Amino acid sequence: MSQPVEGSDRRVFHITDPCSAERLVEDGHLEPTSLESEGFVHCSTAAQVVATTERWLAGVDDLVLVELDVDRLDDLRWPEVYPGQHFPHLHGAIPGAAVVRVHRWRPADRAAWEG
After folding, report:
1. How many CB atoms lie within 10 A of CB 78?
2. How far apart are CA 68 and CA 50, in angstroms?
């Protein structure tokens, strides 16, 4: 695992739908479609969750944030996606053993997620 960018939040979240999160916990792993199509799983830090949901998932009401333990992820990389902004990308399936907690996403609770 490559280390997070200095000073970045160590909590990493995969934003998904409740059914996929349930499958992850039940099956012990999850391979989102982006793993095959792009070669990695999109993740965000707690400070990036609001911007990510607003940019890519605006209007989607039924989302969950799967909190992952970065020490249990084998190939987590932190590329610079936008100038000065590094986002965590997992290059492999999400292992169920890395799941710390599943949070229900409510846009009304966004203040709790803003860094």
Report:
1. 18
2. 17
What does pTM read for this prediction?
Answer: 0.87
What digits encode the pLDDT tens for the residues 20-60? 999 998 999 999 999 999 999 999 998 898 889 888 888 88
Torsions phi, psi for 94 (to 5 deg): -80, 120
Give the whole-angstrom CA distance, residue 25 versus residue 99.
Answer: 8
pLDDT at 4 over 60: no
Lookup result for tokens 């391979």:
31
Task: Enumerate the β-bridge partners of residue 105.
Answer: 63
